[in-house]
């Protein structure tokens, strides 16, 4: 590793230890380019110098993070993709959520919140009767606290909401002065919070996850880890909405495409586990206190059906999934389990409970078939886990009903496919030997194509990043251009005003700067001496051959430049453009701004005979 690489790594470690931002997963070329931009701003040569500068100027961290985290976002950004999501994906999620009620949406890398509020508008439009606030929760996360603060306020300039259709803008925004404010009923449905998608655990049970043009800033290893977390976060069949510059899912088995052009994907059945911190053991059971501790475990919101039975055999808790799937009602809570149908359907639980209490360890009953009243037959694994207090007493049992129907069907299909494969194997054996040579050639070609595709993908992501930066620079140049145009118009008006003033004098007027160079020459001077303004502009006055004895005027001009404005007019003999000698009265006046030194001299030449 070179000295410069070591210095760069030391700078990244310094930022992580001092501000908690871990950029090790970001693409190194882009990261180096943005940090060097800040170094050039402060005229620093090395990463070590910039690290020292950060230590001495903590405010620089804000500008550095704003440079690295390019918060380029907009309402309904990439309109065709949003139209597809609004027309196809959102209605599906609303329909599929009828049984479970709530809808959970996650917008990662949300910046100042435009895309999170776009998701809120899409669901508010799909849900009639004002049920958006009760049914939808949108989690908007980012690592930039400043951008998150702007999103929480929900106040945007008029230019930022131009992409919002007029009818939606009127329905979901309030126009205050020159800004638009998100209405409270929409803003309450969006929860902003800091979250690092590389380091922090993902939010779970998500129906739609929007991460648009965020993955392209990370290395491939970090992208793979983030995609695994996204897979864990989504419900079965949940949707992932990416940006147009992100195509890594084409090489992932975690999602299958719904619409590649619009970057919409759906979670596959393959499950990935995410390591969560271990839960503490529950305290010894007491009346009411035990119920509160059980609620803290989170049974009510678990995606699988769960029951809790105390040591007396009383049903203490039944979460939402258990009530829907097993027909348990709230009235059944508090009754002996043996008096309920669920104690023997879909599986005999009473003997299993006795075994758990006797052996004091979890047991699993696999392959239990269950046919709900209106649904198809499903296969479940029933798990019974003893609830142990801090003093090692078993005060209850948690019962989970895990739906493994999909995996059972896949297993059966696999066994059938395996049998068919073994039958066909003997027929294919002779063909395999002939195909091996061809397969090796194709494999070599495929590897070359994959390498080329990876390079093209990396180049495409770099170009997308550069395009975002160019867009930001272009906006700055347009603002500078507008200011220059305004200044030009003011200068033109000033020149016209000056020309009008100079033209109003009957005699000749000559304006000299502090170096005695001619800066203005009116029409009267042109008539006296026959020279246009363009011929003498910028010429030294004392070097002009215009028929004026300039040597006689030299002391007077210098006197005027010193700020003396009380000098009497001078009469000199001049020669006009027709060669005729005439007498001119010359008055000199210093050009003095308010409370300043003389910046030039004004000469008034008036022919007297």
Termini, distance in Å? 89 Å
Task: Tell me the name of the CATH class of the largest domain.
Answer: Alpha Beta
CATH names the topology of the largest domain as Rossmann fold
Domain module tally: 5
Overview of the structural elements:
The termini are far apart. With 609 residues, this protein is an alpha+beta fold. It has helices spanning 3-19, 28-41, 47-56, 60-68, 79-96, 114-126, 132-135, 145-153, 166-172, 184-187, 220-233, 289-297, 320-326, 350-359, 405-503, 523-529, 533-536, 550-561, and strands at residues 103-107, 136-142, 155-157, 173-176, 179-182, 190-194, 206-211, 234-242, 255-259, 264-267, 305-310, 315-318, 363-370, 378-388, 394-403, 508-513, 518-521, 570-575, 581-591, 600-607. It has five domains: 3-68, Orthogonal Bundle (Chemotaxis Receptor Methyltransferase Cher, domain 1), CATH 1.10.155; 79-267, Rossmann fold (3-Layer(aba) Sandwich); 289-403, Beta-Lactamase; 405-468, no CATH class; 502-607, PAS domain (Beta-Lactamase, 2-Layer Sandwich), CATH 3.30.450. The relative contact order is 0.05. Helix 1 runs parallel beside helix 3 (47-56) and helix 2 packs antiparallel against helix 4 (60-68). It has a seven-stranded mixed β-sheet. The chain has a five-stranded antiparallel β-sheet with strand order 12-11-15-14-13, sandwiched between helices. A hairpin with a 4-residue loop joins strand 11 and strand 12. The chain contains 18 helices and 20 strands.
């Amino acid at each position: 590793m070179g000295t410069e690489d070591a210095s760069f790594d030391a700078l990244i470690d310094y930022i992580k230890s001092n501000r908690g931002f871990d950029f090790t997963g970001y693409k190194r070329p882009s990261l180096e380019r943005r940090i060097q931009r800040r170094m050039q701003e402060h005229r620093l040569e090395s990463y070590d110098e910039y690290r020292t500068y950060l230590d001495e100027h903590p405010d620089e961290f804000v500008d550095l993070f704003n440079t690295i985290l390019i918060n380029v976002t907009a309402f309904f950004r990439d309109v065709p993709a949003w139209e597809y999501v609004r027309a196809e994906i959102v209605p599906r999620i609303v329909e599929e959520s009828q049984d479970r009620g709530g809808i959970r949406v996650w917008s990662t890398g949300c910046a100042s919140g435009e895309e999170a509020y776009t998701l809120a508008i899409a669901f508010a439009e799909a849900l009639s009767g004002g049920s958006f606030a009760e049914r939808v929760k949108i989690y908007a996360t980012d690592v930039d606290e400043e951008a998150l603060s702007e999103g929480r306020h929900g106040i945007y300039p008029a230019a930022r909401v131009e992409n919002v259709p007029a009818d939606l803008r009127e329905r979901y925004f309030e126009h205050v002065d020159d800004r638009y404010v998100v209405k409270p009923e929409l803003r309450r449905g969006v929860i902003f919070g800091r979250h690092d998608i590389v380091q922090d655990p993902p939010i779970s049970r998500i129906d739609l996850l929007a991460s648009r043009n965020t993955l392209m800033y990370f290395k491939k290893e970090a992208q793979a880890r983030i995609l695994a977390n996204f897979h864990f976060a989504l419900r079965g069949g949940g949707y992932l909405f990416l940006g147009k510059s992100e195509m890594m899912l084409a090489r992932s088995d975690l999602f299958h495409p719904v619409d590649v052009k619009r970057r919409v994907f759906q979670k596959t059945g393959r499950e990935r586990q995410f390591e969560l911190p271990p839960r503490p053991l529950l305290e010894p059971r007491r009346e009411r206190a035990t119920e509160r501790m059980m609620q803290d475990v989170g049974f009510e919101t678990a995606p699988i059906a769960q029951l809790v039975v105390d040591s007396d055999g009383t049903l203490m808790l039944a979460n939402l999934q258990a009530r829907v799937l097993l027909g348990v009602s709230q009235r059944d809570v508090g009754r002996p389990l043996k008096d309920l149908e669920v104690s023997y359907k879909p599986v005999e639980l009473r003997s299993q409970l006795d075994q758990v209490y006797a052996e004091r360890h979890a047991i699993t009953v696999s392959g239990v078939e269950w046919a709900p009243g209106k649904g198809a037959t499903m296969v479940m694994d029933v798990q019974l886990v003893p609830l142990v207090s801090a003093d090692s007493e078993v005060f209850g049992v948690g019962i989970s009903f895990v739906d493994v129907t999909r995996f059972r069907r896949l297993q059966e299909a696999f066994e059938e496919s395996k049998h068919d494969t073994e039958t066909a194997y003997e027929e294919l054996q002779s063909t395999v030997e002939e195909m091996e040579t061809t397969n090796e050639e194709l494999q070599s070609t495929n590897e070359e194509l994959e390498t080329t595709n990876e390079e093209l993908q990396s180049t495409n992501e770099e170009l997308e990043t550069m395009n975002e930066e160019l867009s930001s620079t272009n906006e700055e140049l347009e603002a500078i251009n507008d200011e220059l145009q305004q200044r030009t118009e003011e200068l033109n008006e000033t020149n016209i005003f000056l020309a009008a003033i100079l033209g109003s004098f009957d005699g000749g007027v000559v304006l000299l700067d502090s170096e005695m160079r001619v800066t203005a020459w009116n029409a009267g001077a042109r008539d006296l001496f026959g020279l246009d303004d363009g011929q003498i502009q910028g010429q030294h006055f004392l070097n002009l051959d215009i028929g004026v004895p300039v040597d006689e005027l030299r002391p007077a001009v210098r006197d005027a430049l010193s700020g003396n404005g009380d000098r009497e007019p001078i009469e000199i003999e001049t020669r006009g453009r027709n060669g005729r000698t005439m007498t001119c009265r010359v008055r000199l006046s210093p050009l003095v701004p308010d409370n300043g030194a003389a910046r030039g001299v004004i000469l008034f030449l008036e022919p007297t005979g």
